[in-house]
């Protein structure tokens, strides 16, 4: 059986690794020209019951331990006037329940665990067509095609595989973000480094927020979020293609906040990445179709709250195990996987949506503090 996985993100690579560990070959088609073609984004907190479980199924627990950053679990929560509401510093002997890992480190661990030719770089799926005898023909934007018996879409929010199964489309959640960054912050801005700390630094207001996150390479990524309509990124008149002017404009939008926040924005480099935040309708499902399925954001795109990548990796592990254990009847294996995945994805999407609503609350940082206190008071499941 020829298996094609579209997308070399955490989900697609985890699936390829689990299949490989069970003696099943797969080809991963990735639009990027190489593993070093671009940065892979910030940190991920890998949860014991999902992302870490997937890495255990992939036989990569030791490799995970080597890249996990326990101190990345530190957190500071502030109000716009600079009032510190909460500070959590992780003890050196704390369990690795939700440690942060650098996305690039995680991707390298997964890539290094696969045979060299598993990932075919520089192949962006344009569309797929069903073949008369079963399977699909993949047509690539760069030209050429490839055939497969089983097509798995791990290609994220704008999946080209999803339309084969459902008409569901992502919709805007009322938030737009801009990513900035400060490289080598300990050397270049030691005062700001001390302020941010070792992990996550959040300041929330009723209509906007600032989040800073320490990365393993010494970079701090800064995320500015605005509770605005979908078209705000094009109507706000911020020149995103001119980083110095964009930084000045963004700092101006926080001029009524404590000076430490505008100092953080002004210290950033020329990385300016605007993003509209979208999600799929909660509970998306489809009639199981032999020869094609989805995982991760392609199946259940949710707001960024720390769950998406974890659920994608768990999807991948569960699908890989289903195919390994049900090799005699792949269609039944996919149905079994999808039944559980629909329920798992819907539950995670509901939780992510709730967290996004808390972050967008008019209460700002105090609303998030109440959320943390309520969750801490709940008994263990």
Automatic annotation (TrEMBL):
One of its GO terms (molecular function) is monooxygenase activity. Pfam families: FAD_binding_3. Its cofactor is FAD. Its EC number is 1.14.13.-. It is found in: Cytoplasm. Its main location: cytoplasm. The keyword Nucleotide-binding applies. InterPro entries: FAD-bd, FAD/NAD-bd_sf, TetX_monooxygenase. Monomer. This is Flavin-dependent monooxygenase. The lineage of its organism: Bacteria, Bacillati, Actinomycetota, Actinomycetes, Kitasatosporales.
């Amino acid at each position: 059986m020829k298996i094609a996985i579209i997308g070399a993100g955490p989900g697609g690579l985890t699936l390829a690794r689990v299949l490989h560990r069970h003696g099943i070959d797969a080809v991963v088609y990735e639009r990027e020209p190489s593993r070093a073609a671009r940065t892979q984004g910030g940190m991920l907190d890998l949860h014991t019951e999902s992302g870490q479980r997937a890495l255990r199924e992939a036989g990569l627990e030791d490799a995970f331990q080597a890249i996990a950053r326990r101190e990345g679990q530190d957190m500071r929560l502030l109000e716009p006037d600079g009032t510190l509401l909460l500070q959590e510093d992780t003890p050196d002997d704390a369990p690795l329940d939700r440690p942060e890992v650098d996305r690039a480190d995680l991707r390298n661990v997964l890539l290094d665990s696969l045979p060299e030719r598993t990932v075919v770089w520089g192949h962006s799926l344009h569309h797929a067509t069903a073949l008369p005898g079963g399977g699909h023909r993949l047509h690539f934007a760069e030209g050429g095609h490839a055939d497969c018996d089983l097509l798995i879409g791990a290609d994220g929010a704008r999946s080209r595989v999803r339309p084969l199964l459902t008409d569901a489309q992502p919709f805007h959640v009322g938030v737009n973000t801009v990513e900035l960054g400060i490289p080598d912050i300990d050397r270049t801005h030691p005062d700001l480094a001390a302020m941010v700390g070792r992990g996550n630094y959040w300041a929330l207001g009723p209509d906007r927020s600032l989040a800073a996150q320490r990365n393993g390479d010494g970079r701090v990524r800064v995320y500015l979020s605005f509770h605005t309509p979908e078209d705000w990124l094009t109507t706000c008149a911020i020149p995103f293609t001119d980083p110095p002017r964009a930084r000045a404009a963004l700092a101006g939008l926080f001029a009524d906040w404590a000076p430490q926040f505008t100092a953080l924005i002004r210290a950033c480099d020329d990385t300016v990445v605007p993003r509209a935040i979208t999600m799929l309708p909660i509970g998306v499902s489809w009639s199981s179709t032999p020869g094609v399925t989805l995982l991760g954001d392609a199946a259940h795109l949710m707001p960024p709250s720390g769950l998406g990548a974890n659920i994608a990796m768990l999807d991948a592990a569960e699908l890989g195990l289903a195919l390994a254990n049900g090799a005699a009847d792949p269609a039944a294996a996919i149905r079994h996987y999808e039944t559980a995945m629909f329920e798992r994805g819907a539950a995670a999407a509901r939780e992510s949506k709730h967290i996004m609503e808390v972050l967008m609350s008019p209460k700002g940082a105090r609303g998030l503090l109440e959320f943390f206190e309520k969750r801490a008071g709940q008994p263990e499941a």
